[in-house]
Amino acid sequence: MFFWCTFADVSTKTACMRTFWRLLGFAKPIEKYAIPYFFYTLLYAFFSMFNLVLIIPILNTLFDGEKTVNHITSMPEFELSSAYLTDVSNYLLYKLYGTNYDVMQILVFLSITVILSVLLSNVFRYLGQRTIETMRIHTLRNLRNQTFDNVMNLNVGYFSNERKGDIIAKITSDVQVVQFCITNTLQVLFREPFLIISYLFALISISWQLTIFTGLFIPITGLVIGGIVKRLRHSARTAQEAYGELTSALDESLTGIKIIKAYNASDYIKQKFHDINQFFSRISLSIARRQQLASPMSEFLGVSTVAVIMIYGGSLVLDGSLPAADFLGYIAIFSQITRPARAVTDSLSMINQGIAAGERVLELLDTRTEINDAPDAKKFDGLQEGIEFQDVHFAYDTREVISGVSFTVHRGETVALVGPSGGGKSTLADLVPRFYDVTGGAIKIDGTDIRQLNIESLHAHIGVVAQETILFNDTIENNIRLGKRDATQAEIEAAARIANAHDFIMETEHGYQTNIGDRGMKLSGGQRQRLSIARAVLKNPDILILDEATSALDTESEKLVQDALNALLIGRTSVVIAHRLSTIHNADKIIVIEHGQIAEQGTHQELMDLGGIYSKLIEMQQLA
Q: 307 — phi, psi (to 5°)?
């Protein structure tokens, strides 16, 4: 249907059209914008054509003034010719001045008519542009929102395999490029064709023979421009992918700036960024050259056509079949028809870029989470009995990291997971809130497989303090109330006191309203961790997962926070992961995980008496 997809094979054309229609769907209700734009553009095209056609009576008045004073007392019958326009002008002059007017009055009348026509033309042009800009913003907002919402709905495992910078590029840069596919499409469909049709109408009314002769050159122009824009779509997709890599490299560099400085790796990181930027620049330059070639080539072909027309049209003037004023008007109008033709070629290249970017955005939008609610999922109203791991297996792709783990956490118990790094402790904890799903066996809460529970209701009763402290560029208050948006100021302060955070919060510039910067970088590591603990305390969940919750604290803060956590854990079901074993010796059960399996389990004293892995870990830490 749309000719920018015609310069491709059948499968590519089908994919192109499918992408286009899906992107256009984000402009709904599109009729709200397309219908007014249609009429504004139609009127703009009419008055633009009318402005140029008025050149002919003006020239006739200047070159042959006496013949122009022709009194017409009745409205002439419509016909497709420049003479009809002249007769209408004479009729209006008669209605205005009667039979008493001269050449100067004709010029004044025509000049005023041109001014009014140009004014109306530009008013409708402005209204059309205003409408299409409103649609553009509306479309981009919808596309960004839906893409971001879908990303937020994806499971945690998805982000382990994707570059964050590439996701950011798709939501920001790619979505921005998609606008060309939307706005330029309406221009290609309505504005430029209407202008071309109105100009052709005027050309035919002046001389149909000359217009037929001119039409012979249009297919040549189309083939040349088509060859130029044919490869733009593939290059545009490559450029968007390269931009994603560039964004990813930038994000990693800014995130790891301390490590880069500490290891004197600035030169390596700079060179890595330069290489990616060089590739992106090379692709962008290739696209720009093709885009810039299309318009000059179109203009060259247009001027060449005008030169040929002058030869043929000149012969018509010389043999008396075409008036000189009409021929000059014809040349003026034809010179303008190349402008919308060039605009179409420019729009084609931008639409190809928009479709290429749109394919990447839709690819992200079509990605579905691997963890979904079961069709008959139950709402989880709170823990009653406990959590049971039944022969749990889990693998990242084909690499199994949890192999047949079975144990039970009764309600109100604190179970500690310890063992060497990489043994699978954090992975086991991540399976409880279904950040990942087990690949074998089952995890049951109160006898129900967690895969049969509604995920949102499950998360509502789980609090997590992760090993990596995640805070947001917001106020201290908003970071603490993340899990309980309706919390009162008193509740927030109470949670901060339990986490031993209230005192240092009050020492900041604006107290609880202090902005902590990107990732909370305005705070120390210990302060960030205490805010993370306060966030979990405020949520007051049935199930607590503490993954190295005290690892970032100094000795004094660790003692105070550990006392608070011990009080918090009383009567609460908790899974605690710790390398610093002094923090979990009071746990009801300690499970030693090694190579994804349970190596030992029991109380602190039982495991010490056993003299196995746990006791060796304790001895090593004591020696340290």
A: -60, -40
User: Which residues in the chain land under pLDDT 50?
Assistant: 1-4, 6-7, 67, 624
Output phi, psi for 450, to 5 deg. -65, -20
- Rounded to the nearest 5 degrees, what angle is found at the Cα of 277, between the Cα atoms of 276 and 279? 65
224 near 301, Cβ under 8 Å? yes
The set of residues, in sequence order, having a beta carbon less than 8 Å from that of 187 and lying 6+ positions away, is: 132, 343, 347
The whole-number pLDDT of residue 4 equals 47
pLDDT (0 to 100) of residue 163: 77
The C-alpha atoms of residue 453 and residue 446 are separated, in whole angstroms, by 11
CA distances from 373 to 366, 393, 505 (A): 18, 20, 39
Least Cα distance to 177 among 395, 351, 430 occurs for 351
Beta bridge partners of 589: 415
Helix or strand holding residue 593 (H, E): strand 589-594
d(CA 504, CA 437): 39
**Which of 369, 318, 6, 315 lies closest to 152 in space, CA to CA?**
369
Residue 193 to residue 216: CA distance in whole angstroms: 18
| CA dihedral of residues 377, 382, 383, 384 (deg, nearest 10) | -100
Gyration radius of the chain's alpha carbons:
37
Instruction: Let me know: does 450 contact 458? Beta carbons within 8 Å.
Output: yes
Q: What is the pLDDT of residues 3-24, one digit of tens each?
A: 445 445 555 667 777 877 788 7
CA neighbor of 101 nearest in space, from 76, 66, 74: 66
Question: What integer pLDDT is reported at residue 388 of this predicted model?
Answer: 93
Residue 418, classed as helix, strand or coil, is strand
Spatial separation of the C-alpha atoms in residues 227 and 221, rounded to whole Å: 10
Q: What is the pTM of this model?
A: 0.73
pLDDT attached to residue 123: 93
- 575: helix, strand or coil: strand
Predicted pLDDT at 226: 59
DSSP string, 91-127: HHHHHHHTT---HHHHHHHHHHHHHHHHHHHHHHHHH
Quote the distance between the C-alpha of residue 121 and its chain's center.
35
In this structure, are strands 597-602 and 589-594 parallel, antiparallel, or unpaired?
antiparallel
Tell me how far apart the alpha carbons of residues 265 and 271 are, in angstroms, rounded to a whole number: 10
Contact indicator for 438, 612 with CB cutoff of 8 Å: no
127: its two tokens: 């209204």
3-state secondary structure of 445: strand
Please name which of 516, 575, 526 lies closest in space to residue 551, comparing C-alpha atoms: 526
At position 144, the amino acid (one-letter code) is R
Give residue 614's identity as a one-letter amino acid code. Answer: Y
Q: Which runs of consecutive H residues, i.e. helices, occur in 481-592? A: 489-498, 502-507, 525-539, 555-569
- Measured CA to CA, the distance from residue 229 to residue 240 in angstroms comes to 17
Contact 145, 137 (CB under 8 A): no
How far, rounded to the nearest angstrom, does the alpha carbon of residue 183 sit from its chain's CA centroid?
A: 16
pLDDT at 3: 47
pLDDT of residue 1: 42
537 and 495 Cβ atoms separated by less than 8 Å? yes
Taking the C-alpha atoms of residue 78 and residue 88, their distance in angstroms, rounded to an integer, is 9
